[in-house]
Amino acid sequence: MSIKHSLLALLQESPRYGYQLRGEFEERTGSTWPLNIGQVYTTLDRLERDELVAKDGDDGEGHVIYSITAAGRTEVMDWFAQPVAQANPPRNELAIKLALALTLEDVDVSAVVQAQRTASMRLLQDYTRQRRTAATTAGVQLSSEEAGDPNDAAWLLVLDSLIFSTEAEVRWLDHCEGWMAKRAASAGKSAATRRAERAIPADVSTPTLTSTTKAASK
Amino acid sequence: MSNEILQLESVSRTYGEGATSVAALRNVNLTIHAGEFVAVMGPSGSGKSSLLTLAGGLDKATSGEVYVEGTPLGGLSINELARLRRRAVGYVFQDFNLVPTLTASENVALPRELDGTPARKARRQAKDALRLVGIEDLADRFMDQMSGGQQQRVAIARAIVGQRRLILADEPTGALDSATGDGILEVLRNRAEAGAAVVMVTHEARHAGWADRVVFLKDGRIVDEAASQHDPSVLLSGLAH
User: Fold this and answer.
1) Interface with A, mutate which of B173, B187, B214 (most A CBs under 10 A)
2) Is Nucleotide-binding one of the keywords UniProt gives this record (chain B) (predicted)?
3) CB nearest A127 (choices: B212, B216, B238)
4) Per the structure, how many domains does chain A have?
5) Residue B226 and residue A119: Cβ atoms within 8 Å?
6) Domain parsing of chain B, residue ranges
7) Chain A, 37-96: which have a CB under 8 Å from a chain B CB?
8) With contacts defined as CB-CB under 8 Å, which chain A residues touch B190?
9) Which of A46, B144, B234, B237 is the most interior residue, by most CB within 10 Å?
């Protein structure tokens, strides 16, 4: 998450002080990613050093107001224009866990998958419940494209993002399970084939095949 | 508890006999109460649809017993089963199963009229059901004059007409876009909150997210369940996850 660009985006709207920036950020993202006030001020210091924001006096109550510079506006517009880089996927503990489980004989991979699926499904239920409550509170019908306060709509979209991410995880788990079932069936078949081959001595199997071929050619 | 609407007691269903027989359900125990929305998930061939058809009295268990509002289905005649279905069970099929030569209102009123409700009362109940699914103004339309989402709402209205207490839905959002599908789920959710027991088969995790409880089937057995925690702090724990 880019705190730097998020703060610039809010400052582009109007000059603000640190606590205001934190409040606005959390309100617009439904407090999904709580910000530490220390993070906010550290980031503002760096933005000032890079001449993307400038101190703009105080509000009369001792709060230092920050405003965005022309360079800051360019920076934030570039941020919105650029897709979020996904070139280096974040470390995914679940993928790592499953990858390792597959290589170890003593781990019941199906049980790992099911335990995760149940947990993810529970999370999905809770996100869906929250989304429904949020939509009702905002007076927005789920099936409607109308939205009232943009902040409510933003919060609903954040919840949607969490819902779709969790759904993707469950679908991936389903995929893993299907793939493992196919692999197990294939391994079983290979083992059965190997057993059958061991049971038929070569000098017996060859004439049988030959006679079958002859019979088929008649 | 006394508000059990659907009970499956050691239910097994096997198709065919001998070496070629296939066990669709194996010793399944499941109880669903009034006001509960339950989703059934599992891979293809896991027994999801078999469970639903047995619950709806459209098929008979090989062993075990299915109870709907306390009535064991095993001992009922075909006519008694049909009567119970019309009175207590609403079934939403994936492909709607609506009669094309009837209007929306007539489709919804049909099971009530078949059950002996006077036509005028049945039409009034149909109108109420169509209002609940948000398409009261389309009551006089024929099926070829309605979109897929609208037809699915008619199918749901038919399933809930007369305040049936058990709603069984087989992939009810299968062919619908995301927003229309959410509208259908909202209707099912509302029925559960009004006191019906709703069982929905789905392969979409996002749709199962609307349920209070998710039952996972695999190879004809229930292998796990997920129940919503109702925990307001879940969002933060979810993010940590």
Assistant:
1) B214
2) yes
3) B238
4) 2
5) yes
6) 4-240
7) none
8) none
9) B234
Are both A146 and A185 inside the same structural domain?
yes
Nearest to A124 among B209, B231, B239 (CB): B209
For the cut 80, the answer to whether the pLDDT of residue B78 exceeds it is: yes
> Residue A213 domain-assigned?
no
Interface ipTM:
0.78
As a whole number of angstroms, the distance between CA B167 and CA A14 comes to 53
**Residue A155 placed within a domain:** yes
A97 and A195 together in one domain = yes
Q: Examine residue A167 and state whether it is found in any structural domain, yes or no.
A: yes
| Residue B95 and residue B68 in contact, taking contact as beta carbons nearer than 8 Å | no
Tokens of A108: 């019941």
Question: Which single residue is written with the structure tokens 């019906």?
Answer: B196
Distance CA B164, CA B195 (A): 10
Element containing residue A64 per DSSP (H, E): strand A64-68
Nearest CA in chain B to A133: B232
Q: What is the pLDDT of residues A90-140, one digit of tens each?
A: 678 888 888 888 888 888 888 999 999 999 999 999 999 989 888 887 765
Average pLDDT over residues B63-91: 93
Q: Residue A118 is nearest to which of B206, B212, B226, comparing CB atoms?
A: B226
Q: Which amino acid is at B228?
A: S
Kindly state the tokens that stand for B220: 């004809």
SS3 of A68, please?
strand
Is the per-residue pLDDT at B237 higher than 50? no
Residues A97 and A194 in one domain: yes
Q: Which CATH architecture has domain B4-240?
A: 3-Layer(aba) Sandwich (3.40)
Q: List, in sequence order, every residue forming a beta bridge with B169; answer none if it has no partner.
A: B92, B200
- Hey, of A31, A125, A129, which one would you mutate to test binding to chain B, going by the most B CBs within 10 A of its CB? A125
Domain that holds residue A106: 93-199
Instruction: For residue A164, list chain B residues with Cβ-Cβ distance below 8 A.
Output: 206
Whether residue A86 is contained in a domain is answered as no
